[in-house]
Every structure is written in C-alpha cells, then in structure tokens.
Amino acid sequence: MYRELPYTGEELPQKFLCLTYDDGPGESTFEIAEFLHYEGIKATFFVVGKYAVENENILEKVARLGHLIGNHTYEHPDMPYYLSKNGDVQNQILRTDALVRKYNKNSAIYFRSPYGKWSKEVADELNSNLLATINHIGPIHWDIAGIDCFYWKNDISVKDTVEKYLLDIEEKGKGIVVMHDEIADMNFLKPKNRTLELTKQLIPILKASGYRFVRLDEIPSIKESAAKELFVNLKTKGGKYLSLAEGGEIIIGQNDAKLNRDFAIQDLGEGRISLTGRNELFFSIRGEQGIIVKADADVVDSTERFDLVPLYSNKFLIRADNGRFLEVQKEKGSLAATAEFMRGGEIFTILPVGQQVKKNYSLVQQIKSIRRQLLYVKSKIKQGS
Hints:
It is a single chain. The protein is of the alpha/beta class and 385 residues long. The chain folds into two domains: 2-226, TIM Barrel (Alpha-Beta Barrel); 230-352, Trefoil (Acidic Fibroblast Growth Factor, subunit A). 32% of the residues lie in helices and 25% in strands. The chain is elongated, with a radius of gyration of 24 Å. The model has no long low-confidence stretch (mean pLDDT 91).
C-alpha cells in the first residue's frame, strides 16, 4: 500500500547507500546497470511507462543483472496537481504495471512519485483501488537528491557533479541516492545526459571511502512493508459481506460479531490470486465435489488459485480452477464455483480493509451502463432468433 509519509533510507547504518535511477529506460540505462553489476551493486531503476513500452528489451537485460525495476508512473506527472485536475492517478500506476510486473514476480512493485511530489490525497486515491494497491510499496523518496539533471541543464561538468554528490553524501553519511539514467519531460536535455560517466567516476571514490551498497528491498522498513499481508473485504452485489465461520466455512451476509470479514489477498501473477482467512488457511474448492469454497487448505495448489476478472471501480468476477465463476448459493448462504458463464457469476466489490470506493458514477455514466446492458440483451435475443 501507499503511505502518507514517503520511505527514505534514514534507518540505514552509517556508510550504507542505496542507489536508485529515475526516468528511464534510455540510451545509457543498460550500460549503467552493467557497470554496477560488475561493481557488485544492485540498484533500482524507476521507469516511466511511455519509455518502457518502447524499450522492453533494455528492462529485460537490466532485470537479469539483479536490479529492481520500479514504477515511476506512465507519463511522469506531478501527482498531487494531476489529481487536483481530475487526472487518473490510478491509471498512471496500472499502465506502467503492465510493463514492469513481469520483472517483479513474487515480489513487491516499488513506486516513486515524479519529482518526489506527494500528498495524503494521492495516497488515499491509490489505496482505494485494489489493483493499484496489491503488492505495491511506496512512495520511495531519497536522502541524497538527484541534482544531475540540473547540472546537465546548466552545462556543469561531470567532475563538478561528482564533487557535489560527494559533498551531499558525506553530509548525510548514508541513505537513498537518486540519479537519472534518462530525463523525462525535457527532450532537449536528453543529449546532455552524462549520468553514465557520473556513475563510473562516483562509485570507485565512494568504495574507496568505505561506503557499502544495499538494494532497496534490503532497507528494513521497506522490507517489513513488503512482507505484510494485504487484507481485503469482499462484498456481493447485494451489499452482503463474505465472512469466515467455524470449520473454514465461507458464509454470506450474516451479521455476527464473531465472524471475521478480513481476508488476506496475494497476487500470484497472470491475473491470479489466493485468498486466506484469519484461520491462516487458503480458499479452496478441493472438497465437496470440487465446487464449494472453503478456507481449509494449508498450501496453494491449482484448486487454491483464482482468476480475478476486473470489471470497474473495484468490481470483480472470480473464476475458480474448474473454469466456473463463483456465485452465492442463496438457499445455503455459501459460496460455490458453479456459474458456467460470466453472466451467472457474482460481482464482488473487493477493497483493502478500511478503504472506500472513491469514484461515484454520474447519471450519464449510469445511463450508458444501462444502455450497454440493454444492447447486450438485444444481441443475445438476435443471436437466438
């Protein structure tokens, strides 16, 4: 999830640094990554989606060297201002996720906000969207600022830029360092980027001065956050919550204080998830004819993996391994994987615990939705005639 206060490297021991690079991938990204690899340093590259989509081959090679690939939005906007003008900050994350997720299998996706600009409102907006929240950690800030762009813009030499970084690092003594392997928003400045040379000159001096380097996910608070489970509530279209009862039974709509509505969700990749009850057992369809969903499995196998099918505004269909969608058995008040087609599946609202759906649909949007539903019915009637 996203914190109101950004993560920094303040808790690192003295003489420990974490290298990060923003705005790529670009022409020098792989050379920087390769140089750091030979130096035994693992960095984090926060990438901009509009550049990543054109340079996926670079990201592949960078990731193979053991570096982390982070999310730096798709178009590099000032997120608080962008949100204030009704910009879709969730979309900025999700579009870039589609490009970087494959390099973060079985691990968190780390997020840095452009220019380091951040607000509680942006955090709340992102946390209100399950897909933008699950397995995400951010925002990642810095302790030693990325002055390289400013220096290249003013035609300051690499030597002077190295000296400025050394002064700032010596003053702080530790922390997250940011540099720029590419330069977003200022195309005229791209040919002046000399961060590859900066890196090659800076690292040997830092090593000789006794500095050591850690990867971003080794910073204690970040590592701890990445290990935390994300708990969600699941609500049916009729407004009834799923709850965990004795014996791992999943029941719907009973208002009993002894029942627990919080379930841990884990992203398994390829659009699949697992769900765990407070009994620490996974949702499964392995028992009772392979259709009744219970939280009674101690490991994740095929019968504990579920496809998450997004609809809109945190609304989802859930499909089990048997190819059937989950639906509520009204007579029993239980959950079963029995719906053969999407139209028979239950529509669930899934939100992180404590979060609310932020976006309300206007009357125009509601009318459009009704019209689409009517057109669907019309097309089915026409196909059957």
